[in-house]
């Protein structure tokens, strides 16, 4: 399965972005991460275009957890994206790369005081507050700095998408966010609105990763719009920004067929606008945080083959070939 600019050249070697993979391995050694910049940039442009023409009031933040280094941060900035970071290390990388701090979105379900001070000190554009303790901590940090900080409240929509259970994040039983069903989310927004140094820009959710259809995300949008209606009705609060996270999957194997960016945008924007009209709500700015969908198919890891073993097996009878490479479980965990 060849993706992006990949092709087999006249030598029978894999070529990525015009570079011979064998020559890259000789020059830099293996294991070697190779990023196809052309494909990465094109994916970002295609994703943005798919949403801009359907819902102009939108902003997109690249999810740094998918892949972040100085070069990637600079590419993201050049393409006009925001950047989602989730630790002091990722925040430092972004700042070191010269990324505009006002275009950073700072995540994390257990941010330390150090991280909150760092984010406030550098003027991070939005901090996504995960829990009530963080809300109190951030108010103190902002007050000490004499600043007003823009925040989003992360809420849990109560959705278990069709993906691996280890990468589901939107179900009711999760460590992330404030649950809508039990009233914690409403209470979180209520408390945040009363804090003088925090400006509640909107709400955030994320249902999971490697989603190969739009069903879970569509349900999340409906629940989030219903919650927006609740906030207006009970707190007289109008959501300015609705962040629906990321999660769109990629093709790891040929049977994986995620929606195209155009298909995904058509479904999500269709549901969003329909629900907003149904609830008679003003259109918020739509924020998203795709990561894997933008960079996953642009990345390749090159290995060198070492030992090869032929091992007899009985069911079914025959042999199984084991090929050892010079990578590790850190980048290729066993199934």
Description:
It is a single chain. With 335 residues, the protein is an alpha/beta fold. Helix content is 36%, strand content 22%. The protein is built from 10 helices and 16 strands. The strands form 4 sheets. The protein has an 8-stranded parallel beta barrel, surrounded by 5 helices. A hairpin with a 4-residue loop joins strand 15 (305-313) and strand 16 (318-325). It is globular, with a radius of gyration of 22 Å. It starts with 6 loop residues before the first strand and ends in a 10-residue tail after the last strand.
Global mean pLDDT: 93
- The assigned structural class equals alpha/beta
Number of domains: 1
How many angstroms separate the termini? 20 Å
- Number of H- or I-type helical stretches: 10
What general form does the structure show? globular
Task: Say what oligomer this is.
Answer: single chain
Order of helices and strands: EEEHEHEHEHEHEHEEHEHEHEHEEE
For the largest sheet, list the strands in their spatial order: 5-6-7-8-9-11-12-13
Whole-angstrom Rg: 22 Å
Spans of at least 5 consecutive residues whose pLDDT stays below 50 are 161-171
Task: Give the helix proportion (percent range).
Answer: 25-40%
User: Any idea what the CATH superfamily is called?
Assistant: Alanine racemase
What percent strand? 15-25%
CATH class division = Alpha Beta
Count the beta strands.
16
- Level-2 CATH architecture: Alpha-Beta Barrel
Q: What's the CATH topology label?
A: TIM Barrel
Largest sheet: 8 strands, parallel, barrel
